């Protein structure tokens, strides 16, 4: 199974994983390269970090155009409607503590979070190999 993982935002982190390995990772602005990633990797499934507006953070987003929400909407359209790729949403809170422990060098926290979302998704599906499981559950 090939999984495309997207952590949307002004800087979108992305990762492509299989059960056995992390194939590729990177970043791009907003939704710019989603179509290219779909065409290049032909994913079977996509995982997107969902957006939740928490009450205690809502004041900081007053007058915002909510670019992350707009980006997420475009991604959903490109995946499901245009390409027929099913997607699953995962909350940011699901991966934040694990993401800090992830081994590797990444360009941004969004890229690191996308890898972590992919690992968590594969783990929850019972598909994560032992090698990748070590990345997710390593001890400090």
Written description of the protein model:
Helix content is 40%, strand content 21%. It has a single domain, classed as Nucleotidyltransferase, domain 5, CATH 3.30.420. With 140 residues, the chain is of the alpha/beta class. The mean pLDDT is 88. The protein has a five-stranded mixed beta sheet with strand order 3-2-1-4-5, with helices on both faces.
Radius of gyration: 15 Å
Gap from first CA to last CA:
30 Å
CATH class designation: Alpha Beta
Number of alpha- plus pi-helical segments: 6
Question: Percent helix among the residues?
Answer: 40-55%
Instruction: Provide mean pLDDT, rounded.
Output: 88
Strand element count = 5
* Second rung of CATH, namely the architecture: 2-Layer Sandwich
Order of helices and strands: EEEHEHHEHHH
Q: How many separate structural domains?
A: 1
- Main sheet characteristics: 5 strands, mixed
What is the CATH superfamily classification? Ribonuclease H-like superfamily/Ribonuclease H
The CATH topology is Nucleotidyltransferase, domain 5
Strand order of the largest sheet: 3-2-1-4-5
- Estimate the global geometry from the Cα principal axes: globular
> pLDDT below 50 for ≥5 consecutive residues: which ranges?
none
**DSSP strand (E) fraction?**
15-25%
Q: By helix and strand content, what is the structural category?
A: alpha/beta
Which descriptors apply to this entry?
40% helix, five-stranded mixed β-sheet, alpha/beta, 21% strand, Nucleotidyltransferase, domain 5, globular
Quick summary of this structure?
This protein is an alpha/beta fold and 140 residues long. The chain has six helices and five strands; from the N terminus they run E-E-E-H-E-H-H-E-H-H-H.
């Amino acid at each position: 199974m090939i999984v495309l993982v997207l952590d949307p935002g002004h800087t979108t982190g992305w990762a492509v994983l299989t059960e056995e390995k992390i194939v590729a990772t990177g970043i791009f602005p907003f939704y710019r390269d989603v179509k290219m990633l779909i065409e290049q990797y032909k994913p079977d499934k996509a995982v997107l970090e969902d957006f939740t507006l928490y009450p205690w953070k809502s004041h900081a987003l007053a007058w915002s155009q909510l670019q992350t929400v707009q980006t997420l909407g475009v991604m959903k359209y490109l995946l499901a409607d245009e390409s027929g790729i099913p997607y699953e949403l995962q909350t940011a809170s699901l991966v934040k503590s694990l993401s800090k422990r992830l081994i590797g060098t990444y360009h941004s926290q969004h890229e690191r979070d996308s890898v972590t979302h992919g690992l968590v998704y594969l783990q929850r599906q019972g598909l994560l190999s032992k090698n990748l499981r070590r990345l997710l559950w390593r001890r400090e």
